[in-house]
Specification:
protein-transporting ATPase activity, four-stranded antiparallel beta sheet, Multidrug efflux transporter AcrB transmembrane fold, alpha+beta, 4 domains, Alpha-Beta Plaits, SecD_1st, translocation, transmembrane helix, Gyrase A, domain 2, 616 residues
C-alpha cells in the first residue's frame, strides 16, 4: 500500500523527535551568573564559614545574590544580573585573600533529571554573553634570539669539552660569531660544529690576526623555531586561560604569528591582560666566584633594592620551563613563598649543580620581557613603535645547604598576590617568545543580552513569516510543513546542545537561514505533487511521486550546501565557524524533517484511504 510507513519507521521518527525535545529542553533553563571559590591548595577545604564570610560582605555592600552552595570543594554563589556578578568578584577576592581563586562562572539551572541524561543548554559565544577579545602577536625576532642564546651556551660547553680554545662568542642579529687565534682550532671547531649543529650554515672570515667562524640558521630551521614558538605560546595561553576559570574560551592561531583569544563573561580586562601577556620566567644561576672571568659573569640588581647588586655566572642551571607544579604558600615567618616541583630532567640538573656547590650561593633570577611604546612621525603620520626590552632582577640569593632535588621553595617575594601570580605563571608554563597585544575589544554583558534578544526576535519573525506563507499557499500541507519546521528547530537546538557547540550571533543567522532552507524542500515536494495532479495522477499517486521524484533534487541541493558549510568551518575563524556549525547541523536536521517527518505526517492524514481531493 502506497503512502504508508511500516510501524517501526513511525516509532523511529517518534523516538528521534522525543529525544530532540528532551535534549533541547535545557535551553529553557539559562545558566545563572555565578562566582566560584576554589582553594589555592588541595589541603584547604571550602566550608560554611567561608560562605558566611562572603555573604556577610555581599550583604554589607548591597549586592543581591542567592543560592550559595558547596560542590566538590568549590563554593558557588549565584547572582541575578551580570553586573552584580562582576562587582561581587572583586569584593569576594578582597574578603577571602589569596588563599582562594575567585573566578567568574555560570551555574546551571537545568533540572537534575535532565542533567542525569547528559542534557545541557547551548554555550553562548562572546557576542552573546559579553567578554573580551584579544589579538596578540608573537615576537618572532626575539624567539630566534632566545634560541640562539641557547645554542651559544651549548657551543661553549662543546668547545670547552673538546679543549678547543677560542677568544669569544658573540651574537649580532641572527649571526653567531666565534673568534679564534689560529687555523688549527678554527678547522677543528668547524668540523665539530658542523656535525653537532646541522641546522647552521658556516662561513669564514678574518679581521687582522683574528679568524672568525660565522654560523647562521638555515631558513627552514628558522621557520621551525618560529612555528614552535607560536605553538608553545598557544599551549601556554590555553593553560593560563584555564587557570582564569573562564567558561568556553577561544584560543586559536591566526596567520603566521598571531593568536586570537576570546574570553566570554570576562569584564576585568586589566587582570586578563596581566595574566595572558605576562612573559615572566625564572632562571637559576650560581653566584660567580671571585676569580671568575668578566666574560663568564653578569651583574644584576635585586628586585626589592635596585642599589644592591650581585654577580652571577652566565651559565643557567635551569629555567622556569622545568617547573611541573607551583603553589603559593607562606613560610614559618608568615612571608609569601612559592613551593616548586621540577620535572625529571630539571630535578637531575638541579641536583647535579647543587651537590657539587654546597656552601655556595644560588640566585633565583626573575626575567620579564616588556615593551616600550613610542610615537614616531614618519611621512607626516604618527606611528606607534614598540621597542621590546628585558628586565632581570634577583628575587632570592641563598646559600646551598645540601643537594636539592625535584622540590624546593622560592622566598623573597613582596606580597601574597605576587606569589600567587608567579605560581600561576609557572604552573601554566612560560611563553616561548614575547607576545604583544595588537587589538583589544570589550563587549559588555548588556550588549550581549541585547544581541540575544534581537537574535531571538529575528528567529521568531522569520518563523512567523514562513508559517503564514505555508498556511496561505499550501493549506493542510502547509500546516504539516509547519509542524515539521518546529521539529526541525527543536532537533537543531538538541544537536547543538549535545555537541556543546557555541552559539554566536552569526550562528543565529545560520538558524534563520536553515528555517528558509527547510521550507524550501517542502515547497519543492508540494509543487511536484501539484504538478502530478495536473498531469492526471490520482491524489495517492501524486503524493507518492511528489516525494519520490523531489528527493534527488533536494538531496543534491543540500549536499552542495553542506560541502560549502564544511569548508567554511575548516578554513574560517570565530564568527565564520559559528555560522558554519549551525548551517551544517541545520542542513542535516532539515533533510530529516522535510522528508521523513513531513512524509510521515502526510501518510497519517491521507495514507491508506480513498481521497478525491488534496488540500494543497
Amino acid at each position: 500500500m502506497i503512502n504508508k510507513y511500516p510501524l517501526w519507521k513511525y516509532l523511529l521518527i517518534l523516538v528521534v523527535v522525543a529525544m530532540g525535545v528532551v535534549y533541547a529542553l535545557p535551553n529553557l533553563y539559562p545558566d545563572d551568573p555565578a562566582v566560584q571559590l576554589t582553594p589555592q591548595r588541595g589541603s584547604v577545604q571550602v566550608s560554611e564559614r567561608h560562605l558566611s564570610q562572603v555573604t556577610r560582605a555581599l550583604d554589607k555592600a548591597g549586592i543581591e545574590y542567592f543560592g550559595e552552595e558547596i560542590e566538590n570543594n568549590n563554593g558557588i554563589i549565584r547572582f541575578k544580573h551580570d553586573e552584580d556578578q562582576l562587582k561581587a568578584k572583586t569584593l569576594i577576592q578582597g574578603t577571602l585573600g589569596q588563599d582562594f581563586v575567585v573566578a567568574l562562572n555560570l551555574a546551571p539551572t537545568t533540572p537534575q533529571w535532565l542533567m542525569d541524561l547528559g542534557a545541557g543548554p547551548m554555550k553562548l559565544g562572546l557576542d552573546l554573553r559579553g567578554g573580551v577579545h584579544f589579538l596578540m602577536e608573537v615576537d618572532m625576532k626575539e624567539a630566534l634570539a632566545q634560541r640562539n642564546e641557547v645554542y651559544i651556551s651549548e657551543m661553549k660547553t662543546l668547545l670547552r669539552s673538546e679543549r678547543l680554545r677560542y677568544r669569544r662568542i658573540t651574537r649580532d642579529e641572527g649571526v653567531i660569531s666565534i673568534r679564534f687565534t689560529n687555523d688549527e682550532y678554527l678547522d677543528k671547531a668547524k668540523s665539530l660544529l658542523r656535525k653537532e649543529f646541522v641546522d647552521f650554515v658556516q662561513t669564514e672570515r678574518s679581521e687582522g690576526d683574528d679568524l672568525f667562524l660565522d654560523l647562521t640558521l638555515s631558513e627552514q630551521a628558522a621557520r621551525d623555531i618560529e612555528d614552535y614558538a607560536v605553538k608553545q605560546n598557544l599551549t601556554t595561553l590555553r593553560n593560563r586561560v584555564n587557570e582564569l576559570g573562564v567558561s568556553e574560551p577561544l584560543v586559536q592561531r591566526q596567520g603566521r604569528n598571531r593568536i586570537v583569544i576570546e574570553l566570554p563573561g570576562v569584564q576585568d580586562t586589566a587582570a586578563a591582560k596581566r595574566i595572558l601577556g605576562a612573559t615572566a620566567n625564572l632562571e637559576f644561576r650560581l653566584e660567580a666566584s671571585s676569580d671568575a672571568g668578566v666574560l663568564d659573569t653578569e651583574e644584576y640588581p635585586f628586585r626589592d633594592n635596585e642599589a644592591r647588586r650581585a654577580t652571577l655566572e652566565r651559565d643557567i642551571i635551569i629555567t622556569g620551563n622545568s617547573v611541573s607544579n607551583a603553589q603559593s604558600a607562606f613560610d614559618e615567618n608568615g612571608r609569601p613563598q612559592v613551593n616548586i616541583d621540577l620535572d625529571t630532567q630539571g630535578g637531575k640538573l638541579m641536583n647535579r649543580a647543587t651537590r657539587n656547590n654546597i656552601r655556595r650561593r644560588m640566585a633565583v633570577l626573575f626575567v620579564e620581557h616588556k615593551v616600550k611604546t613610542h610615537i614616531v612621525e614618519a611621512e607626516g603620520e604618527r606611528i606607534e613603535k614598540r621597542v621590546p626590552f628585558v628586565e632581570k632582577h634577583i628575587i632570592s640569593l641563598a646559600t646551598i645547604q645540601s643537594a636539592l632535588g625535584n622540590s624546593f621553595r622560592i622566598t623573597g617575594l613582596d606580597s601574597p598576590s605576587e606569589s600567587s601570580e608567579l605560581a600561576l605563571l609557572l604552573r601554566a608554563g612560560s611563553l616561548a617568545a614575547p607576545i604583544y597585544f595588537v587589538e583589544e575589544r570589550t563587549i559588555g554583558p548588556s550588549l550581549g543580552k541585547e544581541n540575544i534578544e534581537l537574535g531571538v526576535t529575528s528567529v521568531q519573525i522569520g518563523m512567523a513569516m514562513v508559517v503564514i506563507f505555508m498556511l496561505a499557499f499550501y493549506r493542510v500541507f502547509g500546516l504539516i510543513a509547519n509542524v515539521a519546521l518546529t521539529a526541525n528547530l527543536v532537533l537543531l537546538a538538541a544537536l547543538m546542545s549535545l555537541m556543546s557547540a557555541t552559539l554566536t550571533l552569526p550562528g543565529i543567522a545560520g538558524i534563520v537561514l536553515t528555517l528558509g532552507m527547510a521550507v524550501d524542500a517542502n515547497v519543492l515536494i508540494f509543487s511536484r505533487i501539484k504538478e502530478e495532479m495536473q498531469n492526471g495522477a490520482s491524489p495517492q499517486m501524486a503524493i507518492h511521486a511528489g516525494f519520490e521524484r523531489a528527493f534527488v533534487t533536494i538531496f543534491d541541493a543540500n549536499l552542495t550546501t553542506l560541502l560549502v558549510a564544511v569548508i567554511l568551518f575548516a578554513v574560517g575563524t570565530g564568527p565564520v565557524k559559528g555560522f558554519a556549525v549551525t548551517l551544517s547541523l541545520g542542513i542535516i536536521t532539515s533533510m530529516f524533517t522535510a522528508i521523513m517527518v513531513t512524509r510521515a505526517l502526510v501518510n497519517i492524514v491521507y495514507g491508506g484511504r480513498q481521497v478525491k481531493k488534496l488540500s494543497i
